[in-house]
Amino acid sequence: MINGYLKTYSYVEAFDLFREMGRFSVKSDGFTLATVSKVVGEIRDLAAGKLVHCQSIKTGFVVDIVVSNSLILMYGKCGEFEAMKKVFDEMRERNVGSWNALVSGYSNSGDWELMKDLWEVVKNMQLEGMKLDGFTISSLLPLSGGEGNWGCNYGRELHCYILKNELYSGFGSDVHLGCCLVDMYSKSGKVSVGRNVFDRMWFRNVYAWTAMINGYIENGDFDEALVLFQEMQLNDGIEPNKVSLVSVLPACSSYAGLMLGKQIHGYTIRKELTTDIALCNALIDMYSKCGSLTSARQVFDKGSFHKDAISWSSMICGYGLHGMGEEAISLYNQMLFLGNKPDMITVLDRALDFIKKMPVEPGPSVWGALVNASVMHGNTKMQELAHRFLIYLEPENPSNYVSLSNLHASTKRWDAVAGLRKMMKEKGLKKAPGCSWISINGNTHCFNVADKAHPHSTSIYEMLDDLIFIIKEDG
Asked: Does 90 share its domain with 1?
């Protein structure tokens, strides 16, 4: 019964039943203790986890490999890494699952100091005669993107290991491993290599297509992402899910692809996905950036989803983006009137907690959103943390270094500023000029800073001079 609750994600009911089992003096066996360890790991209840651990010691089942492996995973998910390592070290006998549990705990920690020891763990695992399996590799690959602490070299070594040990054939159950490879190469800026992996996959489900689409979007190739999104449906007959829809919507925003954005919106209505918060928030953001504030407000007002802080912020920012200050203030006051006035520090902490608990590895767009929220609410500590993860994920993106450098400069931490500037110089990184674009009658016009390449640049600058003069006249 407890296992049934676990499989249906009814974690609270599962643990309540375990407690009831104790009140009836029914002794737990190894299977029960392993199952309940998974339950408390999912709800991140460390106190309950310690209770299960004590029960395992008391009944003697702690010597059971399956129970100990579950305890390692539980402590890892609860962020208690010393206890996790202690359980592992005290095991009389270990299997591949034991090592995988330890690797999973370290890889999901988000703590750079802990992750520094991860490759040593992997090395010791092999010295003990254990072979890395698909689970081990899929835990390590997300850490191997970029040229930072891990670097793409580790990713290539893992790819070679996969091929040498025939862990990946491109067909069937190992599709998850293929997705991890695509994601790793995309994060390293080698999206073409990721595409080679994708093209060689014999079986491609919606998750594989979404990984490749997201890879193109992360690397700024929005055209190819949109082409692939259409091929997914036309060539393979695969319908997009909520994740793929949320992934492709930023591409519509970036090139003002309002028509495709509307088609995606229509699809969500037909498939009755309008109750999904993330998807509705992405639609609001897309419509706002495409200049269709009426449509954005319709999604905001008429959607059957429960509005969260991001929903309100997206709509308010949409009005602010287009200079509609009165509408933005009016909506902000409405938000306050309805009691939506959370403590902003608590909200940012919850945002970080949400990122840690995401079932997929958070990408640059997620950490970038946390940066923007931290700037909005003045949380410099959270802002610095998010910037550091961005540098870790995108070590060749100069914007990340410049932004963090500006943050240090604002707090007069000049030694940190000098360190970042030196790092940029050693890597040969330079900040690319800012670029804006607008779509008029189906044609996209791009503008760089101090750009005079546009055929009507003279008229444009004359109009700008007139606007600046009027603004100055009005004080």
From this structure: yes
Query: Which stretches does DSSP call E strand in 220-268?
Result: none
Give the Cα separation of 130 and 139 in Å (integer): 16
Q: How far apart are CA 251 and CA 221, in angstroms?
A: 9
Q: Establish if 340 belongs to a structural domain.
A: no
Task: Sort residue 397 into left (φ over 0), alpha (ψ -120 to 50) or beta.
Answer: beta
Contacts of 249 (CB under 8 A, 6+ apart): 261, 264, 282, 283, 285, 286
Tokens encoding 182: 């695509």
Compute the distance between CA of residue 248 and CA of residue 214 in angstroms, rounded to an integer.
7
The tokens describing 33, both together, are 């203790």
Does residue 389 share a domain with residue 450? no
In a shared domain, residues 6 and 90? yes
Q: Looking at residue 29, what is its pLDDT?
A: 92
- The tens digit of pLDDT for each residue in 339-379 reads 775 444 445 755 666 566 555 566 676 677 667 667 666 67
pLDDT tens digits, residue range 393-441?
A: 777 777 777 777 777 777 667 777 777 777 777 777 776 666 777 777 7
Nearest Cα to Cα of residue 104 among 66, 134, 147, 62: 134
Beta pairing, strands 435-440 & 443-448: antiparallel
Are 46 and 85 members of one domain?
yes
Local structure of 131: helix, strand or coil? coil
Give the range of the structural domain holding residue 459, as residue numbers without chain letter.
435-473
DSSP at 443: E
DSSP per-residue codes, 421-437: HHHHHHHT--PPPPEEE
Q: What confidence tens digit (pLDDT) does each residue in 141-190 have?
A: 877 765 444 455 778 888 888 888 877 654 445 788 889 899 988 888 88
What are the pLDDT digits (tens) for 31-67? 999 999 999 999 889 999 999 999 999 999 999 999 9
Give the count of alpha carbons within 13 A of 268, CB side only: 27
The percentage of the chain sitting over the pLDDT mark of 90, rounded to a whole number, equals: 28
Closest to 141 measured CA to CA, from 88, 81, 186: 186
User: Collapsing DSSP states into helix, strand and coil, what is residue 287?
Assistant: helix
SS (H, E, C) 14-43: HHHHHHHHHHCCCCCCHHHHHHHHHHHHHH
Which has the minimum average pLDDT: 216-220, 226-230, 378-382, 383-387? 378-382
Cα–Cα separations (whole angstroms), residue 429 to 221, 395, 399, 402, 470: 20, 10, 9, 10, 39
